[in-house]
Amino acid sequence: MISYAQNLEDVVLNRVFKNKDKGFYIDVGAHDPVELSVTKHFYDLGWRGINIEPVFSSHAKIEKERKRDINLNIALGRKEENLTIHEVERRPDLSSFDKDTVEAIAQKLGAGISSYSVEVRTLKEICRTYCDEHIDFLKIDVEGYEKNVIQGADWKKYRPTILVIESTVPNMCVIEDWESAEIIENWSDWESIILKAGYILVYYDGLNRYYVRKEDEHLKNHFYIPITPLQDRFEFFEQRKKINTLNDLREGLKRTNQELERKTIELNKMNIELEQRNVELNQKHEELERRNVELNQKHEELEQRNVDLSQMYEELERKYAELNQKYGELEQRHAELNRKYVWLEKKNAELKQMNSVSERKNADLDRHINILRALIEEERFLKKL
User: Fold this and answer.
1) Which residues contact 190 (CB under 8 A, 6 or more apart)?
2) Measured on CA atoms in the order 17, 20, 24, 29, is the torsion positive or negative?
3) How many CB atoms within 10 Å of residue 91?
4) How far is Cα 31 from Cα 50, in angstroms, rounded to an integer?
5) Exposed e or buried b for every residue in 244-282, given b needs 16+ CB within 10 A?
6) pLDDT band, residue 40 (cuts 50/70/90)
7) What percent of the chain has pLDDT over 70?
8) How would residue 172 be classed by pLDDT, with cut points 50, 70 and 90?
9) DSSP structure string for 243-299
10) How many CA atoms lie within 13 A of 10 on its CB side?
């Protein structure tokens, strides 16, 4: 089995309930559904029960994980009331109603404290309300408030088979001075109540005291020897968690290696492709170099052509200047020709006028000549007569 409890309490109880796949428990001061849980092993077997946890954050975790259980965000005491609980930062399992105790713990741990009011009910009332079957075991771990919880029970009517009660001063379960070992115990305040209720002390593990009701006294043989791995065949949850973590890491490494191998194959393919692309790029680079040489040659040719064109342009500019000069000369000659043309036109008009006069005079002359001819002919005719 896997032990989730702080001090192998679940292993001790498993000696009695090893072959019981259904049962009922009450966990007063449950703290967590897994970590340090006395009931986790039995819940996994199919048991159910009542979890009492006044710390808000701890109760929320229990409520989430324990769907079959009755999970109450309250505290238990000798009477119904409201009290202020003092929660230790990062260590809610050490929370208590005793402010001085919590302050001492918080100072030792260098932790803060948050205080708030919680509802307090009695174990008797909880059993009357929720217990419709026999209680196989009752665990009480309330950081020094055990006596109040015990005083609020009805031990005649509700008699769990086994009681597991934390019996040391809060945060003093480890003995520092063996000459004063008795200073860690706190059971003297309440144990007489348990014994008078008909329970027998059967085991003390250094943190908890175990009691069996007298009607089940035969069960005390289960506590005859201390807990041992050989006898009880257990492993610690923390060890299992580390093993699981290592296994997860191994699986993760395996998956990572497989992924690395896959990526290595992909990278090799990519390298081959890159090599091919590199060859292609080199070929393209050589082609670009060749084209660059050609372009440089063409550029030089264009530069030479540009020089030639510049020279041609200069020559054209010179010729254009010469043409402009000649054009100016032609303009002057054209102006002179125009002037001469005007003069000629004038002279031509005069000639035409003179020609017209001459033509009239010629006509008059021809008429006079014809008249003279006629007279001469007439004279000749007359002479012949």
Assistant:
1) 146, 147, 150, 151, 165
2) positive
3) 14
4) 12
5) eeeeeeeeeeeeeeeeeeeeeeeeeeeeeeeeeeeeeee
6) very high
7) 99
8) low
9) HHHHHHHHHHHHHHHHHHHHHHHHHHHHHHHHHHHHHHHHHHHHHHHHHHHHHHHHH
10) 25
